[in-house]
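All the exercises in this workshop are built on plain-text protein records. A record pairs a protein's sequence with a compact description of its fold. The structure tokens are whole numbers drawn from a learned vocabulary of backbone shapes. Once this layout is familiar, the rest of the handout is easier to follow. An example says more than a description, so a record of this kind follows.
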Amino acid sequence: MRCLLPLLALVSAFAADAPAPLRVFIRCGPKTHGPGDHDHPAFARDWQPLLNATGMKVSLGDADAKGAQTFPSAEQLAQTDVLIIHRQGGGDFKPDEQARVEKFARRGGGFVVIHAGAVAGNATSADFYKDLVGGSWRQKVTKWREGPMELKFVDKAHGISNGIADFGMKDEIYYDMDLRDDIHALATAPTPKKKGAGFEEQPQLWTYEKPGAQRAFVFIPGHTYVNFSRPDVKSLLIRGIAWAGRRTDLASFEMRAMLPDCPPPPPPEKK
């Protein structure tokens, strides 16, 4: 039944007038931490085919030997619906890169920011990034904690988080980030900051929309690469990408990604 339902959904989708593929550009960088952590090149390698399997059309920047990718050109961004930023210092842009990103945002482009992609290196970059995606790491203010964490969903009706139960994993949280008041938190996590008899919870997943311009989905976990194989993490990211791309059929993208895991049908019996 798990494999039949996605198949039926695909049949229905193809029977209707299918929209143009969602165009995604993955902006990754070199690996920056120890074994199993911040493995941005592995994300680019594994998630391009995974997202293509959902029906998206995924592009990557040219990468050097260390995995550092070139920034998407103006032409590439003109052919992109969603820009995924998953690299160390994702909020730092050169002047020409910032100009391209601003143009992409003004025309309604989507952003998906993962883990250290939410980090900006200085106050000017943090100001720009906060306005772009709803929040930013603020140097000398924002803190981190690596280890066991728990995601608690505060909006279980949103298309991205619908049906996903609270869960824990070994990863990393960021807290005391510089967040806009108009972000929409989907999930929080307890921080080391005491609050009453417990600990203060702060957003770890949120959406942000700027009227007449960009959409953003920010996913703060992603420190430990093996967690990208979790079904709940896959669901959240696939749905988040589709949402940032202004699609309403979020679950259909997720179901298409499940098909490769389904066993092939048995061969017909010989008579």
Q: What stands out?
A: The radius of gyration is 19 Å. Residues 30 and 67 are 4 Å apart (CA to CA). The helical segments are 4-15, 40-53, 74-78, 95-106, 123-133, 231-244, 250-258. The longest strand covers residues 184-195.
